[in-house]
Amino acid sequence: MKAMILAAGRGERLRPLTDTTPKPLLCVAGKALIVWHLERLAAAGWREVIINHAHLGQQIEAALGDGSTFGLHIVYSPEPVGALETAGGIAAALPLLGEQPFLAVNGDIWCDWNLSRARRLAQAHDQRLAHLVLVDNPPHHPGGDFGLQAGRVCSALAGRSGALTYAGIGVFWPAFFAEVTRGTVMKLRPLLDAGIARGIVSGERHDGRWVDVGTPERLAELDRELAQAHASPALL
User: Fold this and answer.
1) What is the pTM of this model?
2) Which tens digit of pLDDT belongs to each residue from 187-232?
3) How much of the chain exceeds pLDDT 70, in percent?
4) Residue ranges of domains in the chain
C-alpha cells in the first residue's frame, strides 16, 4: 500500500514564513512538518510514498531526496504554479499510486492517528471508495464539515450539533478519482459530496491529538507542545 502526502499548497495564511519556505518544511520541535509524517509512515511499515508539490517544490525534493534517509522510497509529483488543489493533485498522481487503495495525508497537519489502520481499511470488501478520518471541530472551524452516522459520512449535520471536521487523512480507492481529468484544478469537497450521496464514503472519529497548522500562531503552539513532550516519546 502506498501513501501520498499532499504538499503543494501555497500556505497563504502562514505568510511571510511561506514566502521563502514551503509549508511542509516549516519546523516544529526541530523537525519539518513533513518529516513527522515520513517518520510515522516508516514506523508503521510504509515504504513507498508519493509527494506532490508546487510552490518552492524543489526545496522539498532537496530536503527529502529519495527518502532513503527515512527508510522510504519517495517519488515526487510536481504540479504547475498555483497547484491543482487536492482532488486535482491526487488525480495527477494516480499513475504513481497504482491500482490499489492508498493513504492520503495533508502535509500541513500533525496527528497521532494510528496509520496502521489504513492497511486494514484497505482490505475491506464493501462498496466504499473513500474512508475519512474526522475529528472534533477546532475553534477556527466550529461548524465542522460532515456528520458521521453508523460509520458512514453524511452531509446533513454540517454546521449543526454533532458535526465533525475532516482531518486531512483518508484512505481512497483510485476509482474515486476516475472522472477527474489529469491536469484539472479541482478541490476534494465536490467529489466527497458526490460520493456521500452515493453512499460510498465511510468514516471514523479520531479522538486523539490533531492540529491544523494553518497559521503562525498554531505553528508556534504546536512547536511548544511537541518540544515539551519530547522527553515522553509516548506523547509523540
Assistant:
1) 0.91
2) 999 999 999 999 999 999 999 999 999 888 998 898 888 888 765 5
3) 94
4) 3-231
Which three cell numbers mark 183? 491536469
pLDDT at 233 over 60: no
Q: Please tell me the distance from the alpha carbon of residue 111 to that of residue 107, in angstroms, as a whole number.
A: 11
pLDDT in tens, 70-129: 999 999 999 998 899 999 999 999 999 999 999 999 999 999 999 999 999 998 767 789
234 Cβ partners below 8 Å, 6+ apart? none
Report the distance separating Cα 3 and Cα 181, nearest Å: 21
Question: Domain 3-231, what fold?
Answer: Spore Coat Polysaccharide Biosynthesis Protein SpsA; Chain A (3.90.550)
Q: Give CB contacts under 8 A, 24+ apart, made by 113-117.
A: 113/167, 113/169, 113/206, 113/208, 113/210, 114/44, 115/40, 115/41, 115/44, 115/46, 116/44, 116/45
Q: Measured between alpha carbons, how far apart are the two ends of the chain, in Å?
A: 24
Inter-residue contact 110 to 28 (CB < 8 Å):
yes
